[in-house]
Amino acid sequence: MNALDGLTVVDLSHAIAGPTCTNMLVELGATVIKVEPPGIGDGFRHYTEHGGEPMLSIPFASINAGKRSIALDLKTPAGVDLLWRLLERADLLVENFRPGVLDRLGLGFDALHARNPRLILVSITGFGQTGPLADRGAYDHIAQAMSGIALLNTGPEGPQKIGMPIIDSFTGYLATIGLLAALRRRDASGVGEHVDVAMLDAALKLVNTTVSVHSYTGRTPGGTGNRGFRLVATSEFYPTAQGWIALGANNQQQVEALLRVLGHPELIDDPRFRSHDARVAHYPAVRAWLTQTLSTWRAADLEARLAEARVPVAMLREVGEIAQHPHVVERGTLHRVALPGWDRPLDVVGPGFGTEARPTSTVPTLGSDTDAVLAELGLDEAAIGELRRSGVVG
User: pTM for the whole thing?
Assistant: First the structure.
């Protein structure tokens, strides 16, 4: 049994943040009905690499496997009426329209609560439902820029955005936590609530320690780029004779173990290495020494030796390398799903913890479950055929 077996989720979200949230709900056992515009679907269906049937981008597949898809035109009264019929029997509604869109459709929280008091509404936006920036749209790099993350990630070439949609994804995970808390409260009260999740809030949660440092000192740490958070050269990335290595020698014991592995135990008593403050003060010299010394090693050999000495370390790997690593394989981190029109399974990342057993699933083509979902609402073939002819469903 999965944790959310028996829960029904109506998913009006698109792109990354909302679908990441509902992807987690699928992984936990919920039934997720993804409502998409006929003929077009979620815009993420058309993104970058494609595989299998048309309108199945691989990024879309990675966060929408296991969901049911119904193509429904919410610009028509009949489409909104069908959505209401879904919502009256649902536990959760997840959406990421701009604030006010649901109200214009007659689907604001008050209206939802009147017809289904147990329904939990989860709204995911760039800046939240309240505040002077609420009407603004946002993308991942916009949230990185506004939150201070981009300037904290400043290197020699200036501010750098993180090279994957980290704010989108993290916002989806925070939304999942928020709705699970709302479910817990509903178990006690029988009443649903509105969960307001913002990308900017999520980004600030990621830099929580920096926010608190500023609160205490009145200063914001400068951008460190590739430097370690503790500003010591013994905890950074370095090129080697073959590949790159990430060192994580932060405390004194780890630094001494690093020096022994590198064949220079005499430097344990060197003033430059003797304490954290000393390593910060002598950063250029320590960095220069490590750069020269590590240039004679292979990253794979150094990783093995340092790991054995219990120094945190990792050879820099491409995604394809770590995805096939025996550790990842043994833990079952990746799940295999069917991609319609493709002759082999697609690997997607599971929920990130090992307590749930996820059944084999497939990526939904646009509207693949329309007829089945409408039949569950009590519509017969003739009624569904008429809705399709009129363009209300696809």
Answer: 0.92
Q: Is-catalytic flag, 168?
A: yes
Take residue 31 and report the two structure tokens written for it: 């039934």
CA atoms lying within 13 Å on the CB side of residue 125 = 20
CA distances from 97 to 124, 164, 216, 374 (A): 7, 22, 37, 24
- Which residues are 93's β-sheet partners? 10, 121
The catalytically annotated residue of 11, 42, 91, 168 is 168
- Determine the Cα–Cα distance for residues 142 and 109; give it in Å rounded to an integer: 28
Contacts of 293 (CB under 8 A, 6+ apart): 262, 264
- Helices 299-308 and 252-261: angle between axes, nearest 10 degrees: 130
Question: Tokens representing 160?
Answer: 């750098």
End-to-end CA distance of the chain: 33
Give the phi and the psi of residue 326 in degrees, each rounded to 5.
-55, -35
Task: Return the amino acid letter for 22.
Answer: T
List per-residue pLDDT tens for the chain, 394 residues long.
Answer: 889 999 999 999 999 999 999 999 999 999 999 999 999 999 999 998 888 899 999 999 999 999 999 999 999 999 999 999 999 999 999 999 999 999 999 999 999 999 999 999 999 999 999 999 999 999 999 999 999 999 988 877 788 889 899 999 999 999 999 999 999 999 999 999 999 999 999 999 999 999 998 899 998 877 777 777 678 999 999 999 999 999 999 999 999 999 999 999 999 999 999 999 999 999 999 999 999 999 999 999 999 999 999 999 999 999 999 999 999 999 889 989 999 999 999 999 988 886 555 656 899 999 999 999 999 999 999 999 999 999 999 9
Relative to beta strand 68-71, strand 8-11 is unpaired
